[in-house]
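Field guide to reading this record: the first block holds the primary sequence, the second block holds the structure written as discrete tokens, and the final block holds curator observations. Each block starts with its own label. This record concerns C2H2-type domain-containing protein, catalogued under organism Halomonas heilongjiangensis.

BLOCK 1 — SEQUENCE
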Amino acid sequence: MMMCKEATRLMSRQLDTSLTFQEKLSLKLHLAMCHACSRCNQQFRLLHQTGRHFEILIERHAGTPPHREDDKT
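BLOCK 2 — STRUCTURE
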């Protein structure tokens, strides 16, 4: 059985690149049996998704002057 340390490494790696079939299968089995790693995987995905949304917001507002509280516009 895969150890949690290896599962964590694969969880992180899968956010940036594709895993092999064997890695995907091993990780899926580990996550089915390990509540802590399953929860960690959810958190990794949420953080990754939040980072992507933040990146999109920055790109949309690039070149736009920052809003200042003392502006009356």
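BLOCK 3 — OBSERVATIONS
The chain has a mean pLDDT of 89.
Residues 4-59 form one domain.
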